[in-house]
Design a protein that fits this description.
The structure holds two protein chains of two kinds. By secondary structure, chain A is α+β, with helices and mostly antiparallel strands. In chain A, 64% of the residues lie in helices and 14% in strands. The two termini of chain A are 29 Å apart. Chain B is built from 26 helices and 25 strands. Chain B is of the alpha+beta class. Classes of the chains: A alpha+beta, B alpha+beta. Chains A and B meet through helix 2, helix 3 and strand 3 of A and helix 2 and helix 4 of B.
Chain lengths: 115, 898
């Protein structure tokens, strides 16, 4: 993977995790399923890369972790969104939206110029 | 509580990468990752994959397990570290906040404690600043520890400190291979003439090796070269920094310029750096002179050597003494003896001492005594604060018990108490440091350079570290007192109720009593030391010097050497100046002399007609010689016992005469008339007839009788640097202005130098003693104050804790006066114990003072008894108010039930 793609992936992954957790607390596996569904398996090529992202977000204080019991009665680490995380999600998604629109616009125009 | 647990450190810093935490983190991470893979496996198995396929697929989809695990672990560990640190800072902040809150609720306690400590820390730091700045800090030369002073001694001739001759200096430089460099020097004033009025300047005359020995190069130009110190070479000068600034505005082009010194054009070759000093700061001029081995006469040099690395002072001294003996064997004619002497049989030797010891020698003992005194003061302060803190802890027992009951660990509570103590100690330390800085500054001004190196003394980081160190140490010391109390097993219910078991109360009291007894004892040691010094100083001041220094103005008139190549012309010239000055308004009497009291001594050997000098005679063959004009004895109010004073008819051409003092006359002609007897100085062979006998004076050291004196008429022994001695009618300043004008009219090339009031010179000579006396007295009074506060505090506490008992006593009919007596007796017992211990301590401690005392025994019974009784009285008196309170105890208290 190119470096640019990793960066892009990382920031989009953070955002997606926050989005996922904005519904309800989830454990890692559930988050990965959610992202898989939501992005039609584009983003999460290696499921394991989710975990460093989760731990990073926890350290930043945007999500909190707690051990709990999963739907099939297994001990699982549940992540939930903190107020700081919620604020972050709101701010980040706005930026993301704007950037994405701008970039998409530029790309559209450039490709039509080239042709 | 297990004893192992009790002594866990109270303020442990968070330990990073703690193994247990790390293991736990790994464990949790592995669980989390395993859970994910397991869930995926199950999901895949549901879709119909075989367990093996599902396992493999789940792992593949997961990605690089090892890398991911490592990445997570790094993040987690960092996170754990941050959390621990944050916890630590937070709990420290909480402790501090809590401490401040508790202290604010007890302002009296806080202020008294902090101030007590501030006094202790301040006094200790101030004296440490002096000790550090003067005694401990190396002299400002590179490898100053290698520098030594060289002087000689010949006790058999009364020469305890015998300066070097040029021949001696040359011999040491050649013979003593332990020295890598050796230089010699002597101070002598020179007259600077030029644009303005002539000016008298202090100059240090140095050999070519002098600067190299000290290892300090010039900041501008260069220092003296060996080749420049011959007679033939052109005169050159090196300037001191201060002189360069004041006379040349710090102009760098000064090198190469010429100034007139004693009428000789002298080329400036360099400027010494700022702060360069030798014996005294701000020496304006350094002039080279030749240590010519051919110059056999004249002993006036100091020597300074630099030891080769690894060489001991003792070894160098041994070598130097060998060199000196060689010299003595070949120069027996110089040693006032007709017979050849064997130096091995005498105590003649070279004295080599580290330069630092030499410079600080006089103040070393007083400073160390003061340092010991402040250490005692600090101990008293700590004991005092410890008493206060532990009393307060006793009062807070219920509070602490509640906190313990609510789940605070003992460790946590102890830590809290220590934090409080440290906060108080820090506040006290800061105030103390401010006090110390102010004290040292005003002290430097007040001491007026009586102390060596005082101008270099200041608060630096070492002093800061010292103040901080003793504050923290004392904070921990007295903070521990309540912790010890707490560490003892106790019953919670008692603590909650505030009713201590008798045994616990006894323990507290025993601790407090020990503190009080210690305080009283330490105070007494300080008081007795101060008392002895005061008594000694009073004796010293009251010592009859044999002359009246008050209102006597002295000033040197340095005649220009060029004009007075013929020394005899100085006699009449001096006489006419004296005559002129005598007639000035405000002048009672004036005279000239070659030496004023309390300046250096010029001794000479002598022979009395008809007496055989004892072979290898000792100090008795030495006399202090000075040449004086008529009227000198009247100026100093030094009475003539019999015979006559000099008159103007005692001239060069008339009979050679001499006036001796009582000490001299009574040694040779006890009970007889000395008039008409003859003597001569070993320096010149002229027989002099004694025409008068004066009373003896102490003009070298007020504490010692010193050598006898012999006075010659100035006209018969003229000198190019006569010192005017002028008895004024009170106001000195207007007289000085008049004298200046008169002298500049009569002798334009001779600027007045060394202008002093004689009594200032006398008190200057006593300055070190006065300093020690005043400071020690101040410390002793502080100690006394602290002890009073301590006794009062403890007795109040004692009374308060037994208020119920006193109430009962009064309720069942005890007279209030009986209760008062009971409490006073308690105080008396403590006082007697403290004073007894103090007397014992003082007997040991004051032996150390002996060398500072003058005509007072270190066990002076009057001082000991007087101060012991006084302190006892003060101790009992400070129990009086607590006793009144006990007597006023309300009988109802006894009936009250908590």
């Amino acid at each position: 993977m190119a470096d640019a793609e990793i960066d892009l992936l990382r920031s989009s992954l953070d955002l997606l995790i926050l989005k996922a957790l904005s519904w309800s607390p989830m454990h890692g596996y559930a988050i990965s399923e959610w992202i898989d569904d939501a992005t039609r398996s584009v983003l999460l090529v290696e499921e394991g890369t989710l975990y460093p992202a989760l731990h990073r977000l926890e350290r930043r204080g945007w999500i909190a972790a707690e051990w709990g019991v999963s739907e099939n009665n297994r001990k699982a680490k549940f992540y939930s969104m903190t107020p700081a995380g919620r604020a972050r999600l709101r701010a980040e998604s706005r930026v993301w939206q704007r950037n994405a629109d701008a970039i998409a616009g530029v790309l559209r125009r450039s490709s039509s110029d080239a042709s | 509580m297990s004893s192992g647990k009790r002594w866990r450190p109270l303020f442990r810093l968070p330990r990073f990468g703690h193994r247990a935490i790390s293991r736990e983190l790994e464990h949790q991470l592995d669980d989390e990752l395993a859970f994910h893979i397991r869930m995926r496996e199950e999901r895949l198995a549901k879709l119909g994959l075989s367990p093996q396929e599902a396992r493999a697929d789940a792992l593949a989809r997961f990605g690089d397990h090892e890398r991911i695990r490592a990445e997570c672990l790094t993040i987690d560990r960092q996170y754990a570290r941050e959390m621990t640190m944050m916890d630590w800072v937070e709990s420290l902040a909480a402790d501090l906040r809590f401490a401040l809150r508790t202290l604010r609720r007890a302002p009296a306690f806080t202020v008294i404690t902090a101030l007590t400590l501030a006094l202790g820390v301040g006094a200790t730091t101030a004296i440490f600043t002096l000790v550090h700045g003067i005694l401990l800090r190396p002299l400002p030369y590179p490898h100053a520890e290698q520098l030594v002073r060289v002087i000689q001694s010949y006790p058999e001739k009364g020469l305890d400190l015998w300066p070097l001759s040029r021949q001696n200096a040359a011999a040491y430089k050649k013979d003593v291979t332990d020295f890598s460099h050796f230089g010699a020097y002597y101070p002598e004033g020179v007259t600077l003439t030029g644009d303005g009025a002539p000016e008298r300047l202090m100059a240090v005359h140095v050999t070519g090796d002098f600067f190299e020995t000290l290892g300090v190069p010039a900041t501008l130009g260069r220092t003296v070269r060996d080749s420049e110190v011959t007679k033939a070479s052109a005169p050159v000068a090196v300037l001191g920094y201060g002189f360069w600034q004041s006379h040349f505005g710090g102009n760098a082009s000064v090198v190469g310029k010429t100034i007139d010194l004693d009428g000789t054009p002298t080329q400036i070759i360099g400027v010494m750096p700022q702060g360069f000093s030798f014996w005294r700061p701000d020496i304006p001029l350094f002039l080279p002179f030749a240590a010519d081995p051919a110059k056999r006469y004249g002993w006036f040099l100091g020597g300074v050597g630099r030891l080769k690395p690894g060489v001991t002072v003792t070894h160098a001294e041994h070598q130097a003494t060998g060199s000196m003996w060689n010299w003595a064997r070949t120069n027996k004619d110089l040693l006032w003896g007709s017979k050849p002497i064997a130096p091995e049989t005498t105590h003649m030797r070279a004295i080599v001492t580290p330069l630092q010891t030499t410079i600080t020698g006089d103040v070393r003992r007083p400073l160390l005594v003061l340092q010991a005194a402040v250490a005692l003061l600090l101990l008293i302060a700590i004991a005092n604060v410890a008493t206060l803190v532990s009393s307060r802890a006793a009062a807070r027992t219920p509070e602490i018990a509640v906190r313990t009951a609510l789940g605070a660990s003992t460790r946590r509570v102890a830590r809290q108490l220590i934090t409080e103590s440290l906060v108080v100690a820090a506040v006290g330390g800061i105030i103390g440091l401010v006090l110390a800085a102010a004290a040292v500054r005003s002290f430097a001004l007040w001491s007026n350079n009586a102390l060596p190196r005082i101008r270099e003394v200041g608060v630096d980081w070492q002093v800061l570290a010292f103040a901080l160190g003793i504050s923290i140490a004392s904070g921990v010391l007295f903070g521990l007192a309540p912790v010890f109390r707490m560490a003892r097993g106790r019953r919670l219910a008692d603590d909650l109720a505030g009713t201590q078991k008798a045994s616990a109360r006894t323990t507290t009291r025993r601790l407090n009593n020990t503190m009080i007894v210690t305080q009283i004892a330490l105070s007494l040691v300080l008081l007795v030391s101060a008392g002895l010094l005061i008594k000694s100083f009073r004796r010293l001041v009251q010592t009859d010097l044999g002359f009246e220094p008050r209102g006597v103005l002295t000033a040197t008139v340095p005649f220009p050497m060029k004009k007075y190549m013929n020394r005899d012309a100085a006699g009449p010239a001096t006489a006419s100046i004296v005559e002129r000055v005598r007639r000035l308004p405000g002048v009672r009497e004036a005279a000239a002399t070659t030496r004023v009291p309390f300046t250096g001594v010029n001794t000479d050997g002598f022979i009395v007609e008809g007496r055989q000098p004892p072979p290898n005679a000792g100090a008795e063959t030495q006399v202090v010689q000075s040449a004086v004009t008529p009227g000198y004895f009247s100026v100093l109010q030094q009475p003539l016992r019999y015979g006559r004073d000099f008159t103007t008819s005692d001239r060069d051409s008339s009979l050679a005469v001499v006036i001796v003092d009582d000490a001299f006359a009574s040694r040779f002609w006890k009970g007889q008339d000395a008039i008409g007897k003859r003597m001569h100085f070993t320096g010149d062979m002229t027989w002099r007839t004694i025409v008068g006998v004066t009373s003896s004076v102490r003009d070298q050291d007020a504490a010692e009788e010193g050598l006898p004196h012999a006075y010659t008429p100035f006209a018969q022994e003229p000198n190019l640097e006569p010192v005017l001695a002028i008895a004024t009618n009170g106001e000195v300043a207007p007289v000085l202005a008049e004298v200046r004008r008169a002298v500049s009219e009569l002798e334009p090339g001779a600027p007045l130098a060394n202008v002093r009031v004689l009594s200032d010179g006398v008190s200057q000579a006593l300055a070190n003693r006065r300093m020690t006396e005043i400071l020690l007295t101040a410390f002793a009074l502080l100690a006394l104050l602290l002890a009073v506060v301590g006794i009062y505090g403890v007795m109040i506490l004692y009374v308060t804790s037994r208020l119920r008992e006193f109430g009962i006593r009064i309720a069942i009919g005890a007279e209030p006066s009986r209760v008062v007596r009971l409490v006073l007796r308690e105080g008396l017992v403590l006082g007697v114990a403290g004073v007894g211990l103090g007397v014992a301590g003082a007997l040991i401690a004051t032996r150390w003072l002996e060398s500072l005392l003058y005509r007072v025994s270190p066990t002076d019974p009057l001082v000991f008894a007087g101060l012991a009784i006084a302190l006892l009285a003060v101790a009992v008196a400070s129990c009086y108010r607590p006793a009144r309170r006990a007597a006023a105890a309300d009988p109802a208290l006894a009936l009250r039930v908590d």
